[in-house]
Amino acid sequence: MATYSSMHPDPYAQPRYFHDDPQDVDMMRNMEPTHPALLGYLFWVIGFTGAHRFYFGKPLTGALWFFTGGIFLIGWIIDFFFIPAMSEEAQRRYRPAATDYSVAWVLLVFLGVFGVHRFYMGKIVTGVIYLLTGGLLGIGYVYDLCTLNEQIDAG
């Protein structure tokens, strides 16, 4: 027999995060990755700009890589060996969404100033604004580099 509490869940209960439940973690291992290492290596090729670090959800070190040329290319070379671990960490951190992370990131990195990634995510108004203003004169482009994973995860 169903009780009142089983039919009406507590509206004040804490939200459940994708990676907190062991069942979700097991399910996640059987799914297609949200941040495949192969794409991380593609971004690593231009990694002295920090693209691979932004992709894996590390905006602070991505900015550091951008301004220092991948810490004068030494950190960039070392990152070659860290990409599988960064991919795994991003896979645990970001849950699968209707918008494919990889497609959105490729569009952002290569066509971001035109807002193509925004059109892809269904944000038509801001896509048009980016198209007409060159990614809000580059400021919106940088904002999206730092927050795209969170935008997709929340969407």
UniProtKB/TrEMBL annotation:
Cellular component annotations (GO), alphabetically ordered: membrane
Compartment(s) where it occurs, according to its Swiss-Prot or TrEMBL record: Membrane
Keywords per UniProt: Membrane, Transmembrane, Transmembrane helix
Membrane topology according to the record: Multi-pass membrane protein
UniProt domain TM2: residue ranges: 37-81, 100-145
InterPro entries linked to this entry: TM2, TM2D1-3-like
Transmembrane annotation, as ranges: 37-56, 62-82, 103-121, 127-146
Keyword Transmembrane helix found: yes
Record carries keyword Protein transport: no
Pfam families: TM2
Protein name in the entry: TM2 domain-containing protein
Organism listed in the record: Rhodopirellula sallentina SM41
